[in-house]
What does this fold into?
Amino acid sequence: MKIAVCIKQVPDSWAEKKMINGLLDREGVDAVLNDLDEYAVEEALRIVEAHGGNGEGGANTITLVSMGPERTTEAVRKALSMGADDAIVVTDDALAGSDALATSKVLAAVIASGGFDFVVCGTESTDARMGVLPAMLAQRLGWAQLTFAGSVVVEPAARNVTIARVTDVGVERMKAQFPVVISVIEKINEPRYPSFKGIMAAKKKTIDIRTLAAVGIDAASVGVGGAWSVVNDSTPRPPRAAGIKVIDEGNGGEALVNFLVEKKLI
Amino acid sequence: MSDILILAEFTGEKIAKTTAELATCGARAGEVTVLVLAAPGKGNALAAQITTGLVTSVLVIESEDFARYSVAAAADAIAQIVLERRPAALLIASSAFGKEVAGRVGVATESGIITDAVDVAADLTATQVVFGGSTTVHSRVSHGTAIITVRPNSVTPDLAPSTPVISHASYVISDSAKLAEVISSEPSVQGGRPELTEAQIVVSGGRGTNGDFGPVEAFADSLGAAVGASRAATDAGWYLHSHQVGQTGKTVSPQLYVACGISGAIQHRAGMQTSKTIVVINKDPDAPIFEIADFGVVGDLFAVLPQATEGVRARKS
Ligand SMILES: Cc1cc2nc3c(=O)[nH]c(=O)nc-3n(C[C@H](O)[C@H](O)[C@H](O)COP(=O)(O)OP(=O)(O)OC[C@H]3O[C@@H](n4cnc5c(N)ncnc54)[C@H](O)[C@@H]3O)c2cc1C
Ligand SMILES: Nc1ncnc2c1ncn2[C@@H]1O[C@H](COP(=O)(O)O)[C@@H](O)[C@H]1O
It folds into this structure.
């Protein structure tokens, strides 16, 4: 099986984020591998491990695909040290400020030319929090969409994938034939920590860095200029005013109810 | 008048509150047509429930493919309608399903998309609250139909009665939307309580419940509230995943959010930080959740909650 995993580098979840000229400031903050994408890497590894592994020269490979600024390779190295084989990173100044539609166009172009059987994504990037990219990829590629998977079963011989789609409305079991776009929820597995051996091995793995031109996409259709939604303005919201804090000395519940009454909440 | 399409949402066969919320936003910008995607023979019963919210017309599309091919089939039909009418906007409720449909329709119709708006103005400017509630953003779609997903419970619905004209249309779902098939489905059970994202009050429990949600549920019931849970609680199997609040669960924005035995990790806050009033019960005075609490009780939830439940019951009777 030839598998692609889409990963993104994002600002650290705890970092204070701010906007500059309508764009997220990605320079001034610590950046990490989107933690929801770790589950995607882990699931791809588990799928190949159940079917002979991804040892050198074997039948299975896992290729990371990412779009982002140059430093994205830091996040890519982490995922390589977990055990993925190699990576393709699209980086180009013209990509800054791309919307999800443009991102999906770039990723779809890379995936379409790679001969993959399926691609695994996280459900959401923790910075943009759109949760739309996997669906957009499926639409662009004309592949089956198996998203929000809480479990994935792949049958390579039958080229079959079955998932349990777990969302707010319930659980649906869905199936499709290769090629497929999968996204996995964070309940699906426990991502491994890279081992020392994995970290050393990752240093020697290939990261194929491509420009937009190499991917065959017109620079005018991406980035700020190609975005189909524009930010008019952004303002920091006032922090919540400090609240009241009481220590329960036997009447904490009563105090709570009095507060609710005072606020006309009951 | 601009043509505004909204996608009706149903829980089972009952109309969801979000439909009136979307209609309210849509009516500011133009004339609202509600799309009802239904199983064959079910459309009229669903359409008949659209009686409020400034709706001009209802367009019913029936196909067995909607249940069978889920997101892809819904997006395929809607994209055909959008390409035919080129409406000014398409408004959909923000849920896993709604956002994925929006994404696919955006690609198929070359339209810009904005997700998780908390409001939509007459000129279709969307308001979003991003970065865990720290920043307000106004944005607009600049190309194609403005596809905007709107968070449940963030817009006050106009409940004025309306008597929309109901019509039917049929569309053939493309083969490319039939690649992934639903083989079985189990809807999540609400257990008689209000739906989390629609509820005015949410009472949530975390690891501090130690697996006993009894006091949390009792307090929720005294207030007519929905019950939520932190990831620690859903991971431990104490509560269903469909009740998880946070980054990878639901985003709620009720009038009142009560967090019991929840520490306030950034991922949990991401799903509840825009609640109007936040009340906290936690025995650790340094728990980060107190930073965003309007009212906090430092104490044991097993003592505080039963007393509060009694207090609410006494005042209501
Ligand atoms: C990728 C990713 C996604 C995530 N998504 C989510 C998400 O969607 N939602 C979410 O909630 N979390 C999410 N998390 C997990 C999050 O980081 C925290 O681990 C989780 O929210 C902690 O849950 P908790 O507050 O219940 O548990 P803890 O952090 O263990 O806190 C328990 C609290 O209970 C208090 N307590 C204990 N006993 C009592 C008592 N008797 N009375 C009163 N207080 C008591 C303690 O003082 C403590 O503050 C995610 C994490 C990751 C990495
Ligand atoms: N720039 C990117 N490069 C690679 N993968 C991405 C990128 N953006 C999003 N993804 C993938 O798409 C998923 C959903 O992202 P989003 O729709 O942005 O919330 C993520 O979990 C990633 O797997």
Chain A touches chain B through 83 residues (CB under 8 Å). The mean pLDDT of chain A is 93. The two ends of chain A are 59 Å apart (CA to CA).
